[in-house]
């Protein structure tokens, strides 16, 4: 494997793995760990395929403002959301709490590989201006990718669990649109603008900083608003009972 590809994959995967344990930690004992981790791996595999498609399409999509908005910003947001709706909106997953864990894990792996491929393309593009600040900004930007995809995956999983999958699909699209707008502006300023012409790499660094703040806010909102809906008092009692039985202790 080429060193640049490996580094890009690590930049995308490490934050996703950290959020994998952070976001699913409160649900320990409520799912099969092997199945959920397998969902993460499947998400990475699908993410590579879709990411290649994105990379092939985005030079054409970014040619004009109209195609950028329609394809890169709205089109990719809708595609990434409805792909998960199609995969998890079936009798096998509907109305089951475990679906939330599968969609979250799948989405984290999926988003990690999309980020990796976009990062690789940004760093290796012949017109891109790369320096220490740009590298730091892109590494930081790997976190909002994981946060946005993980949070929207958990939201879609909650919709499947409650039987409101389609009603909740609009919010993930809107959340992805925000990320795509920031990413579109960063790519336009770093890849598709000649060196020495404003906007330059400084705008890309600023936008990745904004994306990082956005990812932190969205992750906090997800963990404070969605997790309580998935862990009502009755579920928490069942979970504690299960853990006591598994560990053989009487700790409450």
Question: Helices, strands, pairings?
Answer:
Layout: H1 3-24, H2 33-61, H3 65-88, H4 98-124, H5 132-162, H6 170-190, H7 201-230, H8 233-247
Helix pairs in contact: 1-4, 1-5, 2-3, 2-4, 3-5, 3-6, 4-5, 5-6, 5-7, 6-7
Structure characteristics:
globular; 8 helices; 252 residues; 79% helix; mainly alpha
- Which stretches are poorly predicted, pLDDT < 50 over at least 5 residues? none
Q: What's the number of structural domains?
A: 1
Binned, the helix content reads over 70%
- Largest sheet: number of strands, sense, barrel closure: none
Total of DSSP H or I helical runs spanning 4+ residues:
8
Number of strands: 0
Average pLDDT, all residues: 80
Using only C-alpha atoms, the radius of gyration works out to 19 Å
Question: How far apart, in Å, are the first and last alpha carbons?
Answer: 49 Å
Strand content: under 5%
Structural class: mainly alpha
SSE order:
HHHHHHHH
Write up what this structure looks like.
There is one protein chain. With 252 residues, the chain is mainly alpha-helical. The chain has one domain. It has helices at 3-24, 33-61, 65-88, 98-124, 132-162, 170-190, 201-230, 233-247. Helix 2 packs parallel to helix 4 (98-124), helix 4 (98-124) runs antiparallel to helix 5 (132-162) and helix 5 runs parallel beside helix 7 (201-230).
